[in-house]
């Protein structure tokens, strides 16, 4: 066993243990000694102060100011575009389709030739009817001469009264026959005219339904072509029966404006006017059908197309309005988040008078100029600190 000689200094580890057990008094003495020797003591570390919770940024939101403006009162629904007039052109006589005189998709006017049926059989029928009339007219002339002779003989008692009456009846029969011949000639002329098929209305021709060379009949259901009138054009839509009183009041004041929008509800397809509403409410759906007319000069509306319809029935003057996205629905009704002057959000109940889908008119609960949150509402609660990222008064 090795013993440490007395008077030797302790080892490094032993010295460390002694220093760790040094008292504060000794540390202060060391500091004083260093100061006396002209050596600056290192500064004592200061504990970090906890940051205040008020210094943290609020939840970023977008907000706009409620404003006063005139707002149209509109009724909305989906409608279907229909041709103002639609005609399926069919043959009115039987025969072979000689020629098709229109181009598919062509704009036609009333009276324009569309097709031609072989006219020769009907021209022959007309000539036959005219020849028969000529023969019957000759018989009538002879019968009239005989009637004159019988009349002279009857005055001299050389002919009986019965013979005179019989001859008078023959003249009347020949006259009736000629009248029938004239009707037959008129029918033959009409059939000959029907061999030339014309457009009954102004419109656009559709796809050809039969080709030249086919034998067609007046009873064929397919027809030759469909003509649709698209200038103007109609839109048919429905509204709830409770809206009928508003529509009637609006029509009593004057023309009612109607706008057709695309399926995304952003692109305007045309402005028109309300023509009329149906004469009965559909009991199965509780709706009433209405019809509007559009000039459709740019051909933006097409038969069979579905559009969003907006009917303006009134105007709210000087109404307080906010973007529709600002209005939220809660368990107690509708509300908006308003931004208070201290930078906190507050839930404000409101009553909505009219909502156009983009702008909502507030009937109660909000004043003009109040900032309402339009984006970022999902993270808000009553009293939440917010930071307005984008504010607009428009």
Write a structural description.
This protein is of the alpha+beta class. It is 26% helix and 37% strand. It folds into four domains: 60-71 and 317-392, Beta Barrel (conserved putative lor/sdh protein from methanococcus maripaludis s2 fold); 75-84 and 231-315, Efflux pump adaptor protein, beta barrel domain (Elongation Factor Tu (Ef-tu), domain 3); 91-116 and 198-223, Beta Barrel (OB fold (Dihydrolipoamide Acetyltransferase, E2P)), CATH 2.40.50; 119-194, Helix hairpin bin (Helix Hairpins). Mean pLDDT is 85; it is low at 1-37 and 43-55. The radius of gyration is 50 Å and the shape is elongated. A hairpin with a 3-residue loop joins strand 17 (351-355) and strand 18 (359-364). It has helices at 12-20, 24-36, 120-155, 161-194, 244-253, and strands spanning 59-65, 67-89, 95-100, 107-108, 113-117, 196-198, 203-205, 215-216, 225-240, 257-261, 268-277, 287-294, 306-323, 328-330, 333-339, 345-349, 351-355, 359-364, 371-375, 386-392. It has a six-stranded antiparallel β-barrel. Strands 6-5-3-8 form a four-stranded antiparallel sheet. A three-stranded mixed sheet has the order 19-1-20, with no helix packed on it.
Looking across the biggest beta sheet, what order are the strands in?
2-9-12-11-10-13
- Quickly give the CATH architecture of the largest domain: Beta Barrel
Helix fraction, binned, reads 25-40%
Structural class, please? alpha+beta
Q: Mean of residue pLDDT?
A: 85
* Alpha carbon gyration radius: 50 Å
CATH topology label of the largest domain: Elongation Factor Tu (Ef-tu), domain 3
Q: What is the distance, rounded to the nearest whole angstrom, between the alpha carbons of the first and last residues?
A: 96 Å
Largest sheet: 6 strands, antiparallel, barrel
- Give the SSE order as H and E letters: HHEEEEEHHEEEEHEEEEEEEEEEE
Q: Report the uncertain regions.
A: 1-37, 43-55
Number of helices: 5
